[in-house]
Amino acid sequence: MLHAGGKVVMVFAALAAMLLGPAVRTAAAEGSVRVLEDTPVSPVADIPADVRKECTGLGDELPRAIARANPRVTMVRTPSQLRGDTGKYLSVEIIQVKARAAGALSGPKKVTVRGTLVHDGKQIADFEAERSAMEAAGTCRTLQKAEKELGADIGTWLMAPRPHSRLGDQ
C-alpha cells in the first residue's frame, strides 16, 4: 500500500495481482497430475473369479493413496476428464491379482498395476508395480493394504517419473 498526498493508493497490490495471478494459476495447473478416482481393472487382467466377485472395491484405494503421497495429484471422475486436452495425467490399471478368497489362511496376496504418464498427449514415462501384502484379515482388506502401499510408491515416482520404471516389490 502506498500513501500519496493523503490518498491511499493500492496500485502495487492491484498491479501485482493482475500481472502475477495468471502466471501463478498456470504454474499450479502445469504441476498437477490428473488421476482417475477409481482404478480400472484391465479387460485381460489375471484375477481369480472368486476375488473379482468378493472384492467389489478392488482399485478404490489406490488413487486415494497416490493422492495422499503426492499433493500435485488431482482426482477426476471420468476417463474424458482424465485425458483432457492439455496437461498431465496418469493412466493406471490393475493387470493382475494373485489371491484366494480365504483370507489370511490362503497366504500372501499380490496386486500388479501398470501406469502411463502423459503430458499434452505424449507419453513421457511409464511403470509396472507390484506389492504383496499379508494381514490377519480378509482377502479384500489385505488387497487394500497392497493398494495403499502401491499408491505410496506411485505418488513418490510421480515426483521424478522415468520411462520403464519398476516399482514396489519388483
What does the main sheet amount to?
A: 7 strands, mixed
**Uncertain segments of ≥5 residues (pLDDT<50)?**
1-29
Distance between the termini: 57 Å
Q: And the CATH topology of the largest domain?
A: Rossmann fold
Q: What is the N-to-C succession of helices and strands?
A: EEHEEHHEHEEEHE
Coarse structural class: alpha/beta
Tell me the number of structural domains: 2
Mean pLDDT: 82
CATH architecture of the largest domain: 3-Layer(aba) Sandwich
Gyration radius over CA: 22 Å
Helix content: 25-40%
| Beta-strand percentage range | 25-35%
Keywords for this entry:
alpha/beta; disordered N terminus; 35% helix; 170 residues; seven-stranded mixed β-sheet; 2 domains; 34% strand; 9 strands; globular; Rossmann fold; two-stranded antiparallel sheet
How would you explain this protein's 3D organization?
By secondary structure, this protein is an alpha/beta fold. It folds into two domains: 1-31, no CATH class; 32-168, Rossmann fold (3-Layer(aba) Sandwich), CATH 3.40.50. The chain is built from five helices and nine strands. It has helices at 11-31, 49-54, 61-69, 79-83, 139-157; strands at residues 2-4, 7-9, 33-36, 41-46, 73-76, 88-98, 109-119, 122-133, 165-168. Strands 3, 4, 5, 6, 7, 8 and 9 form a seven-stranded mixed sheet that branches. Strands 1-2 form a two-stranded antiparallel ribbon. Helix 5 (139-157) links the parallel strand 8 (122-133) and strand 9. It starts with a strand and ends with a strand.
